[in-house]
Amino acid sequence: METPIILCLKRAEDMTTPRTAYKVNCDHPGSEVAAETAAAMAAVLIAFRPYDSRYSDLLLLLHALQLFSFADTYRGRYDDSVHSVRKYYPSSSGYSDELLWAAAWLFEATDEKLYLHYVAENAAVHGGTGWAVTEFSRDNKFAGLQILLTNVFVRGGGETHDATLEQYKAKAEYFLCVCLQKNNGDNVDMTPGGFLCFHDWHNLRFVSSAAFLLAVYSRYLNMADANLICPDGQLSPDMLLKFAQPQVDYIPGRNPKSMSYLVGYGWNYPTRVRHRGASIPSVFVLPSAVGCIEGFDNCYVSKNGYPNVIEGALVGGPDPREEFYDDRCKHEQTESSIAGNAPLIGLFAVLDSLAADRDKSIKTEISESDSTGKTRM
Length: 377
Prior knowledge:
Elements: H1 31-48, H2 53-73, H3 78-81, H4 96-110, H5 113-121, H6 142-155, H7 162-179, E1 189-190, E2 196-197, H8 203-224, E3 228-230, E4 233-235, H9 237-250, H10 276-279, H11 292-300, H12 331-334, H13 338-372
């Protein structure tokens, strides 16, 4: 029998109430969390391999393989096993996307064909080539999966599964085209200021993840010297970046309200973020600790700014009319989340890498011009 969740609004660092730990196992499976962890470990493996191959191979790879095997062998939704999460973090898309996502990342990390075979053989039954999606989120990984496997198709090496990989590519391009407003009118909505509008609630997390995928795909196209073909025309790699860039610029302040939705950045940003660590003073600066109910009564509904600035947090953002209310109770606009910040950091990394590549190219051209005495145009 599960321990009920105790509603308590205190800083995590100051909590003294029980912190119940939940687990999934063979009798109570949770394929989403196990497979997603396997995918994350495989991605980290790639990042660490050039610097610490021992850690990468002996630890991450071992556990990633074990977790994927567990997730696939003992299939089941994690919110069926841990009922407490259903209200806040249900697995609406099920676990099929996570299984394919994990296998795709394991192929990237290991180059083992059995994982490529898995995503090909299970493409239809798990929806990888059947779901045409219009978002990429913590719950729905299909767009990211389809774009990752498109890169496998474009760069080659999956020849025996090219027909299936091409189907993944078609679904990836559908997602990109609806974001780019090039899908014959059936597109993601836009705000009056030209900002992508996926949802009324927590929209920025979906915008940051979509812009990240656009930037990544632009890089893939550049490497293949190819264009994206949409129902409303072809788009070059640079055109994808030119669309993604204003979406990025909107977040830190280039928008109709000149509002930065990154906490602590710029001169006009949210000061009432729905985050208990930001909203409640520390026990070290108070005469007595804040109780669970006091946290709600005295801090959560307070109109005062936060006592602690949660630097760099991406909030939910404005509504479809680009109205924004800096109020903790408007959690659809002021709540921060890793689901929003993570793809944004990835997007910044991609853009920074592309800028470095451009600088390198310019320096090379200047060097060649100096050596030949001619200016290249």
